Amino acid sequence: VMSILLHGDAAFAGQGVVYETFHLSDLPSYTTNGTIHVVVNNQIGFTTDPRMARSSPYPTDVARVVNAPIFHVNADDPEAVMYVCSVAAEWRNTFNKDVVVDLVCYRRRGHNEMDEPMFTQPLMYKQIHKQVPVLKKYADKLIADGTVTLQEFEEEIAKYDRICEEAYTRSKDNKILHIKHWLDSPWPGFFNVDGEPKSMSCPPTGISEELLTHIGNVASSVPVEDFKIHSGLSRILKARSEMTKNRVVDWALAEYMAFGSVLKEGIHVRLSGQDVERGTF
């Protein structure tokens, strides 16, 4: 399994979660053993000039915080993009570290049908309108090389248009509902004919009082003999032991019992957070 994250340029530079996850990327128990970050650097936040949006020239500079290699590639050259992506995948598989592919490109139109980017970026959009679209640019190159013929190219375009047209025609006939195509979890047999869930029975998850007492006693003891424990902590452990004896639980002891019962079944439990290691909360 390899994790691939797709980012927009404005979000990559501007969202705190990107910086935070980079800092988690190599921590024990958190690492995914390297993520490939693909940044579609098309000035998606085009209403702001990059020089007004971030303090560094590239949106990908935030990845330098973990010394991730960053490949800037011209997205008008599909073969260069493919090459860079395969190098990135190889890097990730070899070193198990994050790597960034910065697709340097542009967006031809605005955010939506109503949006006109010429209002805010007239000079840039004059340049963009002169740009030959990447599909035409690459097709012309392949035809000139003799890799494909003009007829083959036109057939592919017609085939793709046909797929889109057929899907559009089908979408008007609302009697056909291919729900499974977009539903996250098409569980067969989960619903009955009327669309209601079948009656569900849950296995019993309770545990014996004897086991709860055992977990309570372990949670209020010190694992090493003759271990000098901080007086503040020993007070907490003593109170916990009393609670177990009196068949009373507070929030912390209830959590201990939940974790303990899961551990007893041989299931690994990982706690995350600033204070969990102390166990005082």
TrEMBL record:
Q: Give a Pfam family name.
A: E1_dh
GO molecular function terms attached to this record: oxoglutarate dehydrogenase (succinyl-transferring) activity; thiamine pyrophosphate binding
Gene Ontology BP terms: tricarboxylic acid cycle
State the UniProt keywords alphabetically. Answer: Oxidoreductase, Thiamine pyrophosphate, Transit peptide
What GO CC terms are in its UniProt record? Answer: mitochondrion; oxoglutarate dehydrogenase complex
Cofactor(s) demanded: thiamine diphosphate
- For the keyword Amino-acid biosynthesis, the answer is no
Q: Which InterPro entries match?
A: 2oxoglutarate_DH_E1, DH_E1, THDP-binding
In this chain the Dehydrogenase E1 component domain maps to 2-179
Similarity annotation? Belongs to the alpha-ketoglutarate dehydrogenase family.
**Protein name per UniProt:** OGDHL protein
Source organism per entry reads Struthidea cinerea
